[in-house]
Sequence to fold (423 residues):
Amino acid sequence: MKPTPNTRLSNRALAFVLAGGRGSRLKELTDNRAKPAVYFGGKTRIVDFALSNALNSGIRKMAIATQYKAHSLIRHCQRGWGFLRAERNEFLDILPASQRMGESKWYLGTADAVTQNIDIIDSYDIDYIVILAGDHIYKMDYEVMLQQHVDTNADVTIGCLTVPRMEATAFGVMHVDASGQITDFLEKPADPPSIPGKPDHALASMGIYIFTWSFLRTRLLADMADDNSSHDFGHDIIPSIVKGGKAMAHRFEDSCVTSGLETEPYWRDVGTIDAFWQANIDLTQFTPPLDLYDTTWPIWTYAESVPPAKFIHNEDGRRGYAVSSMVSGNCIISGSEVSESLLFTGVRTHSYAKLNRVVALPDVRVGRHADLRNCVIDRGVQIPQGLVVGQDADTDRANGFRVSENGIVLVTKAMIDTYAAKA
Fold:
């Protein structure tokens, strides 16, 4: 169905967010929550970026498929995204894995997560479906990508990042012709194909796909009947369309949203402890690579009603202050030194403590004289008095904390319990 004049394509589209993955490379940070539910940026969750992009693009019909330890994610969506009103034909439906089509309880793959909900999607009365990964940090106008999909009469349009060619070995890589049509799709190739005219760069898949719903519906039913399929977009659906249909690449730089402060298109997979820490710490820079203060493209989330942050004590050696840092609401910096750090809601730091390049998730408590550097502190952790973290990797490991490849220390409740038992 072609849109009527003066109607945005996003009005006829559904954003379907795949948010069932654990994100095992985040180690203990995802022991109790799926990767999309991991905190980011002081008050948001990772999933808020895909959902906010959809809402800001004009897509007000959204569904989110959950699976691994989904309670935290579901609760966040219910609390933070409950402002959508069904009577205005807008919604965020939560679609947990269930025994909807046969006896299999779990989603078998990314495509199967959509297949198992075909009857629900049919009821939405949409023309286009925008498949989104729920675990990346970026700002993007999906309306621009939708327009390209319609203008090129594509079977599928795939969001692509322009990356240095040899960095593309960790991605699905597109080989495209001069018109942007994808002629080959390679999963994590050792020798990635370059972009025409840019021999040192490659196009890597963002995990964003746009289909006309009637086309995808037919493909999904055929895929469901194929016993040899893994029922996955990247492994099955997309390669088959590339071979026998029309798959078009959409370059992220054509639709990324910037405020004027960002110097280049921003997209991050915060899927490791190092990447998660770095992306959060980057936000404390004088001019951060991602502008969260852009009110024209807000990142919507659960807006807790909390008091402002407070800084107390003003004595030599016991002065509560924070420099080059982001400090969220309901934090109390009591006689502590905080520098180049990001503190989420409800953090408390006590006298004589020092925090340098620390990412502290909500409700962390830091005891007196603690000295924390280059670390991620999980939600609700209580740091004992005098604990030193981030100065000696061997000591940190001996104390039961996880040390990443780049020397970032992860501290969780269970690790603190182990440390306390040894003390």
User: Anything to note?
Assistant: The mean pLDDT is 93. The domain at 9-284 is CATH 3.90.550.10 (Spore Coat Polysaccharide Biosynthesis Protein SpsA; Chain A). The longest strand covers residues 201-212.
